[in-house]
């Protein structure tokens, strides 16, 4: 236990020894402007103005930040959550801007850990700003990001996947700028799955690029340390309509109790779409779900290729490391709407963004709720163009299950 404690002590010490804070430049400017500054040989980013918009009233902010999806009465916390696919009559739904035609707007989606593959980034050779981003990121984190993305080996990419996916997703923005002319100038909302939320915040001007990279590196270290401290895993479940998931997870926890494990964890970690959830927790509980799940309405299950119970209380110590690191980060208000996977709601300002970042390591990913908040519209209203940026194709596959019309208007920007 002393050794385990020391791992987190070292991580916390790194924060205060300027791993996050060193060379920090207080940039609050659009992501593409930062790259332009690098391209022109600038060594420091400059601050950008906040515009002339008047401050939003507290009442208006409260209404706009309210839940944009239907919720059942929670009998077992998040496990009782259920969505209404097109809850268009929800009085708390934030209205679209009056002058905005959905066909003239763009939504960006960013992937998370697990989307990586050896060879990603090979489509970006002809995009100078993308190549410069990889070079800049490598100088910040101290290892060759592009080489690991393209050549691996797979074990090294898996170990460094959070930073690799973040940089590749941001590089995909530059590819989209070349191949989808005008789309990025019409972005009205962004969201990211787990780690992808960092990319969304960088694009929206919430988090400076350098700080985002250092925070991601530290988060990856802290999550790996937490996973070593207590063995856990993740399991994808495909569910029948009448599945009894809350009861199944309670039973799994009960069956996993032992003198060595008095408080087992087994809970939903990712809400993907109505018939699919990812659960995470202690190995004993997950193995019981694999054996007995069919009797509770589980049609099939598959292990997620990660070594920890991410987005559960088993990541609490990693979350504490991230929270401490954020004390040294510049977190500003978003320039475009960011819908957070922590709660499926729009982020209303810098303080709200900081709270989401403090929680996004151990909190469940409410991706289904996030997609409803982004795409719920009356049936006769067109959907905006969606660009799924970065490696992997899971974002569009999930979108198709939640909102087929939004999927029809979406494109994967492959890297």
Automatic annotation (TrEMBL):
SMART domains recorded: PKS_AT
Lineage, top ranks: Eukaryota, Metazoa, Ecdysozoa, Arthropoda, Hexapoda
Top-level taxon of the source organism: Eukaryota
GO molecular function term, any single one: transferase activity
One Pfam family, short name: Acyl_transf_1
Malonyl-CoA:ACP transacylase (MAT) domain boundaries: 109-415
Organism of derivation: Pieris brassicae (White butterfly)
Listed PANTHER family: MALONYL-COA ACP TRANSACYLASE, ACP-BINDING, MALONYL-COA:ACP TRANSACYLASE (MAT) DOMAIN-CONTAINING PROTEIN
Protein name: Malonyl-CoA:ACP transacylase (MAT) domain-containing protein
């Amino acid at each position: 236990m002393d050794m385990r404690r020391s791992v987190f002590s070292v991580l916390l010490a790194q924060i205060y020894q300027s791993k996050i804070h060193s060379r920090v430049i207080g940039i609050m400017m659009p992501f593409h402007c930062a790259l332009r500054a690098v391209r022109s040989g600038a060594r420091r980013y400059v601050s950008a103005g906040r515009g002339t918009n008047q401050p939003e009233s507290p009442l208006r902010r409260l209404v706009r930040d309210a839940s944009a999806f239907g919720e059942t009465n929670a009998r077992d916390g998040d496990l009782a959550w259920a969505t209404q696919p097109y809850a268009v009559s929800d009085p708390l739904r934030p209205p679209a801007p009056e002058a905005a035609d959905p066909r003239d707007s763009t939504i960006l989606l960013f992937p998370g850990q697990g989307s990586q593959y050896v060879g990603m980034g090979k489509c970006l050779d002809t995009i100078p700003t993308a190549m410069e981003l990889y070079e800049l990121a490598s100088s910040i984190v101290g290892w060759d990001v592009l080489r690991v993305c393209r050549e691996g080996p797979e074990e090294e990419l898996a170990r460094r996947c959070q930073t690799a996916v973040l940089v590749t997703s941001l590089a995909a923005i530059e590819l989209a700028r070349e191949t989808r002319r005008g789309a990025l100038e019409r972005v009205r909302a962004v969201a990211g799955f787990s780690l992808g939320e960092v990319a969304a915040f960088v694009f929206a001007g919430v988090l400076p690029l350098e700080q985002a990279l250092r925070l991601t590196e530290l988060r990856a270290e802290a999550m790996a340390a937490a996973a070593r401290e207590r063995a856990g895993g993740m399991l994808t479940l495909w569910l029948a309509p009448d599945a009894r998931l809350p009861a199944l997870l309670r039973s799994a926890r009960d069956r996993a109790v032992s003198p060595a494990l008095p408080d087992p964890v087994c809970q939903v970690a990712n809400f993907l779409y109505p018939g699919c959830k990812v659960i995470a927790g202690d190995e004993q509980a997950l193995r019981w779900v694999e054996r007995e799940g069919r009797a509770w309405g589980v049609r099939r299950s598959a292990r997620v290729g990660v070594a920890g119970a991410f987005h559960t209380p088993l990541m609490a110590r990693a979350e504490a490391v991230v929270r401490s690191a954020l004390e040294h980060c510049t977190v500003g208000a978003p320039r475009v709407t960011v819908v957070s996977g922590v709660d499926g709601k729009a982020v209303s300002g810098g303080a709200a963004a900081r709270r989401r970042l403090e929680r996004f390591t151990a909190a469940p990913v409410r991706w289904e709720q996030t997609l409803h908040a982004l795409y719920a519209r009356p049936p006769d209203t067109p959907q905006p163009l969606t660009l799924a940026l970065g490696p992997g194709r899971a974002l569009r596959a999930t979108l198709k299950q939640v909102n087929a019309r939004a999927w029809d208007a979406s494109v994967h920007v492959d890297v």
